[in-house]
Amino acid sequence: MSTLRNIRHLPLKELETYFASIGEQKFRVKQVHEWLWQKHAHSFDDMSNISKGLRAKLASEFTLPALCVDAAQYSEDGTVKSRFKTFDGHFVEGVLIPTEERKTACVSSQIGCSLSCKFCATGYMERKRNLTFDEIYDQVVLINQQSEAKFQQKLSNIVFMGMGEPLLNYNNVLAAIERITAEDGLFMSPKRITVSTAGVAKQIKHLGDDKVRFKLAVSLHAPTDKKRNEIMPINESNNIAVLIEALNYFYKQTGNEITFEYILFKGFNDSPKDAEDLIKICRQVPADLVNIIEYNTIDAFKFYKPDERVVDEFMTILDKNRVNARLRKSRGKDIDAACGQLANK
Prior knowledge:
- This protein is α/β, with parallel strands linked by helices.
- Helices cover 34% and strands 18% of the residues.
- Strands 3-4-5-6-9-10-11-12-13-14 form a 10-stranded mixed beta sheet, covered by helices on one side. Strands 1-2 form a two-stranded parallel sheet. Strands 7-8 form a two-stranded antiparallel ribbon.
- Helix 4 (133-151) packs across helix 5 (170-181) and helix 6 runs parallel beside helix 8.
- The chain starts with a strand and ends in a 17-residue tail after the last strand.
């Protein structure tokens, strides 16, 4: 493995110091920085306004690893799933989700996942490692390029709902968002970014202390500890009461939007009593929205989605109790790109 340092891991000040040490003028720093974060160079040779000598010098002292699209699949509904390859030969998936109103990138934060949620295909994969902040950034860049090529529109939104638990890769996720929102990066509004967590309470509070500006989504999926323990092992150490406390702390510190994600499983969490228990949780947290999600089957988990009548009854109960709920239809199911299906297929 190379012992050279990844040039994108150098803070700007450090890059300036390096260029000064080799006798290069300061404007060269700006040129290289633009290639790294705005022109999206995948090698030093791409930096066409830099002399060959300087390019060779940089290549001898630094690496510039970048994700590449290893394979892409196209759904009938316009969704595009990409399998990205890392510099060290791992694979991770990201999805372009198009609607008339928005073009959303669903990005991953880890290679595999350690949380073992029963309904999620990624949960049955071994967690190989965290993605670095520049690898997360590359996913957004590549999906944005797909959006521009296919729909002639830039990305409007980013959701951290792909492979992995974002809050177990805290520093890299926040560093990636800093680059995505930076004026000398992709300059996207943090209000268009949502980070989804299975419920790591300690890190939710950390987000509050860091005064983050993006939205937070919480994968709830069951309204009681007993049921949540069955499908989400993380609940045994981060139960619903602990989660509620953390979410209220997060909201007090940031005022940012909170969404609950709730997948309906036939005969498990779709009864009127389940709806009432969900309402009780919503009464304790200033959640803006509850996303009721259609279950997408995976081979390892023998649950099914409820009948339409059951879904309608569940939604009616929420509506009558003034819970702002939205039924979210899955996209990309035919290419295993829908919620819970990412497994490098």
